[in-house]
TrEMBL record:
Domain RING-type: 15-55
Molecular functions per Gene Ontology: zinc ion binding
InterPro entries given in the database record: B30.2/SPRY, B30.2/SPRY_sf, Butyrophylin_SPRY, ConA-like_dom_sf, E3_ubiq-ligase_TRIM/RNF, PRY, SPRY_dom, TRIM8/14/16/25/29/45/65_CC
Domain called B30.2/SPRY: residue spans: 347-541
Coiled coil: 185-212, 261-295
Entries under PANTHER family matching the protein: B-BOX DOMAIN CONTAINING (PTHR25465), BLOODTHIRSTY-RELATED GENE FAMILY, MEMBER 16 ISOFORM X1-RELATED (PTHR25465:SF32)
Name of the featured protein: E3 ubiquitin-protein ligase TRIM21-like
Keywords, in A-Z order: Coiled coil, Immunity, Innate immunity, Metal-binding, Zinc, Zinc-finger
CDD domains, sorted: Bbox2_TRIM16-like (cd19769), SPRY_PRY_C-I_1 (cd13733)
PROSITE patterns linked: B302_SPRY (PS50188), ZF_BBOX (PS50119), ZF_RING_1 (PS00518), ZF_RING_2 (PS50089)
Recorded GO CC terms: cytoplasm
Organism, as annotated: Labrus bergylta (ballan wrasse)
Example GO BP: innate immune response
Length: 606
């Protein structure tokens, strides 16, 4: 059939009414062929029925039967025309990015519409019959589209006009009457609307996923930024801490060297004194020896005997047999190292506490006392920053949040995530209690201060300071705190208390499990006849330290203390400059020379 169609001219397959390739061609009794739609419409207007070509009249409207041979040849011709123009169309389309007219033979014009019945794209000129001829006006025109052959059923070469929901494929009219006969068939538009709705949901879901991932990207970027800030802060703090520790080691070594020198100088002085006495005795003995020798040569018997008694015994001298110059350095280094260990341990605790405080102060929150929670005997300042106890009960409004059994008040601010820090001035008081409390604690009955009951607190009772664990733990501090810092890490489950001025860690509650809001809690305790009348004061947090010199470069000479740093690339005898541009060396010290190792190496080398 393809060979035959290639020998015939296109004009032989054009309908004389629509001037287009036959669509469903039918043959009337006179032998002429027309599109079924075209001749039907023509006879519905022109009565009696007459052939448009030969004008033969028919008394009654003839039965129209599709000319299957001609229909097959017309379909083959339509496809061959489309294939002939496809290569040039595709080439021009690639250059222009537009759908081109299939009927233009020379310069391809831009297609204005594509006909789903003819499966051809038309420019404005070749589209004119579809706008003029009534039968062609019924064809379905759409905006220009490519690959119109994909809209033809490959098996029946008919337009794909329906959709089989059973097999989820597009089908033509012949498919519906054959292999898809018993299947659920719907129009393309109906299935389009259904699929479009599903696609809209998918689009919304994809957009949501995109937004979620964009938010996650920002979270990661923020995490990296915070990590960089933390890393810089930790590095600077490490430089400060280890510089101070190294300085302590150097000072300890210098003191040890001075002590050894003092011992040596004392030994040297003692030896010099002994030598001086010995030299004086030698001088006396030499003099006596000269006299004895001279007397021995005396031949005068009388004179010899007269002087014998004064010369027979040596002059008086010190008994040097038991006298020794003894210099013992044994135990000196060990004692010095023990003292150094104690000093380093003490300084390390102080420096670590100071470093932690500087870091935690970055998470400071502005805490204000909530007057609706205050026990009736508590007096709050107007700014909500101070609380003290008075003997008289105040007539306060009833509040479900108010404490009725302990001299307590909580802050308005709560902690339910992240990190938080605040400071309380406790100086001048003999008794006080500060910490954090769970939101759900019963404020109307006597409280049991313990983590199991939702309270994490420390308490000064006269001269003793305790952590309210179960049972309470008595704490040993070098001095009574004047200002207490409270740090909460909600996710980690940590509540730490610091002596801000020392600086020193007072106590840490670790491994806590927080499941609800936490509130700062304050108890100024009984004023005790005025002896404990000083208020608890919530202080503003000072985030800067005038004595912080972590950014100043520090030069350390290695000649004083030789430490093994096998992994360091720094030359052994070169000075080490620690500054913001050279922080890596301090980090190496952190990893390679912890306190115990440093002391061990000092002992080993000494």
């Amino acid at each position: 059939m393809a060979a035959v169609s290639s020998l015939l001219h296109e004009d032989q397959f054009l309908c004389s009414i629509c001037l287009d390739v036959f669509t469903d061609p039918v043959t009337i009794p006179c032998g002429h062929n027309f599109c079924k739609t075209c001749i039907t419409e023509h006879w519905s207007v022109n009565v009696p029925c007459q052939c448009p070509l030969c004008k033969e009249l028919h008394e009654k409207k003839p039965d129209l039967r599709i000319n299957t041979v001609l229909s097959e040849m017309a379909s083959q011709l339509r496809l061959s025309v489309q294939k002939e123009t496809s290569s040039s169309s595709e080439e021009q389309l690639a250059n222009t990015g537009e759908v081109l007219c299939d009927y233009c033979t020379e310069t391809k014009q831009k297609a204005l519409k594509s006909c789903l019945d003819c499966l051809v794209s038309y420019c404005e000129t070749h589209l004119e019959p579809h706008q003029r001829i009534q039968a062609l006006k019924r064809h379905k025109l759409v905006n220009p589209v490519e690959n119109l052959e994909s809209r033809i059923c490959k098996k029946h070469e008919r337009p794909l006009e329906q959709f089989c929901k059973t097999d989820q494929v597009c089908v033509c009219g012949f498919c519906i009457e054959s292999e898809h006969k018993s299947h659920q068939i719907v129009s393309l538009r109906e299935e389009y609307e259904a699929k479009k709705a599903v696609l809209s949901e998918t689009e919304a879901e994809v957009q949501k996923m995109i937004k979620e991932r964009q938010v996650k990207i920002e979270d990661f970027k923020q995490s990296v930024k915070l990590s960089k800030e933390d890393a810089d802060r930790e590095t600077a703090t490490s430089v400060q801490v280890f510089t101070a520790l190294i300085r302590s080691v150097e000072e300890g070594l210098a003191q040890l060297i001075d002590l050894i020198k003092e011992k040596h100088n004392a030994t040297e002085k003692q030896a010099e004194d002994f030598i001086k006495v010995l030299e004086e005795e030698i001088s006396e003995l030499t003099k006596r020896n000269t006299e004895v020798e001279a007397h021995s040569r005396n031949k005068d018997h009388l004179q010899f005997l007269q002087n014998f008694s004064s010369l027979k015994t040596p002059p008086p001298t010190k008994d040097w047999k038991t006298v020794k110059v003894y210099s013992s350095y044994e135990g000196t280094v060990r004692t010095a190292l023990t003292q150094l260990e104690e000093t380093l341990s003490r300084e390390m605790k102080m420096l670590c506490a100071d470093a932690e405080l500087k870091k935690y102060k970055q998470y400071s929150v502005d805490v204000t006392l909530d007057p609706e929670t205050a026990y009736p005997k508590l007096i709050l300042s107007d700014d909500g920053k101070q609380v003290s106890h008075r003997d008289a009960i105040q007539n306060l409004s009833a509040s479900p949040k108010r404490f009725l059994s302990y001299f307590c008040v909580v802050g308005k601010q709560s902690f339910s995530s992240g990190r938080s820090y605040y400071e309380v001035q406790v100086g001048g008081k003999t008794d006080w209690l500060v910490g954090v409390a769970r939101e759900s604690i019963n404020r109307k009955v006597p409280l049991t201060f313990s983590p199991q009951k939702g309270l994490w607190t420390v308490w000064l009772d006269g001269k003793e300071i305790k952590a309210y664990t179960d049972p309470p733990v008595r704490l040993c501090l070098n001095s009574k705190p004047q200002k207490v810092g409270v740090f909460v890490d909600y996710e980690v489950g940590l509540v730490s208390f610091y002596d801000v001025d020392a600086p020193a860690l007072i106590y840490s509650f670790t491994g806590c499990s927080f499941t609800e809001k936490l509130y700062p809690i304050f108890n100024p305790r009984n004023n005790n006849g005025g002896r404990n009348s000083t208020p608890l004061i919530i202080c503003p947090v000072n985030k800067t330290d005038k004595n912080d010199h972590t950014s100043d470069p520090i030069v350390l000479q290695r000649s004083t203390v030789q430490l093994e740093m096998s992994k360091s690339k720094v030359k052994p005898n070169s000075p080490l400059q620690i500054c913001p541009q050279n922080k890596c060396h301090c980090v190496m010290m952190i990893h390679y020379i912890p306190l115990n190792n440093a002391v061990h190496l000092l002992r080993k080398n000494m």
